Amino acid sequence: MSLLTSDYDYPLPQELIALHPIPQRDASRMMVLYRDSQRIEHRQFKEFPSFVGTGDLVVLNETKVISARARSDDGRVGFLFLEVVGQNTWKCLVKPGRRMRVGATVRLAGVVGTVREILPDGERVIAFESPIDLDAAGRIPLPPYLEREPDLVDAERYQTVYARSQGAVAAPTAGLHFTPEILGAIPHTFITLHVGLGTFRPVQVENLEEHRMHAERYVVTREAAENINAASRIVAIGTTTTRVLESRGRPLSPGEGETNIFIHPPYRFRAVDALLTNFHLPKTTLLMLVSAFAGRKFILHAYEEAIREQYRFFSYGDCMLIV
Hints:
This protein has 323 residues and is α/β, with parallel strands linked by helices.
C-alpha cells in the first residue's frame, strides 16, 4: 500500500496513446487480471460476455456527453460548459479569464451572457438571456491530451451506444467498447453519473490524504437498485459506475445526489465484485481506484505488460477486466 502520488506513475511511449477510435467498437483488446492468482490473460473485448455468469449483473453508466466546448461569436473567448446551476445559468471554464471578469458580457450563438460570479478555482458562473443550444453551438469536449479538434467520427464514438442522460463533460470510456449486440447478450442495468472535468486531472499533492475529490452528480433509479440488490455478483463498467456503487454500498437504495468519494488503497470494496476499465493516465484518481481494487503492484505490473504487448491507452484505447 502507498499513499504517495509518485508511486502511481509509469512511463508510457507516446505512440501507444490512442488518438482515434478503432473502426469497430468491440474489436478492442481486453487484458484480464485475476486478482486471486495474480494471473494475466490477453483476450478480445468480444469475449466479455463469456465472463458474465449466472446471477451476475453488469452495471453501466448511461450519462451522455454534452457538446460542452464553444467559442464566443467574436472568437475571442473559449468556453467549457460544466454544469447548469440555474435557469439559463451555467458554470463554465473560460479562456482567457481576463476577458471574463464579474459583469463582463459575451455573445454566444447570438445570446448575451453576463458573468455573475468567479468561483475560487476560477470557474465562471454565467447567466444567459435565453437558453443556449449547445448541440448547435458547441462541440464534443475531447480529452486535452488528444490535442486535436473533434470530427464527425468523434460525435458518435465519444458516446456510448446506450448514452441517454445528458450532463457529462467526459465519456465513461469503459462503456465505449459495447455494441447493442453485446448488451443484448448480458444481464445489465443502468445508473447515471455525470462525469466531471476533474476525473482525468492528475493529483497535484504528494500525499493522497490531502487530495480533495471533485463532486459528481448521480442518479440510481428504483429499478436499478432492485436489480443490483438481487444480483449475486456485480460487474461494474468503469470507474464512474464504481464510484456510485461504492458511495451507496449494498444493499443499494434508490436516490440521487453528489459523490466526492476518493477510492485509493487500502480501500475495502463494498459493492463491486468485478471491474471493466480502460488504461488510465499516470497519477490520476482513476489509476488509484483500480490499484485499490487489484493492488498497486499488480496493476503497475499489468501496465508494464500492456506496454510490452502494445496495447492502446486512454479513452479511445483498449480495456482491462479485473475479476
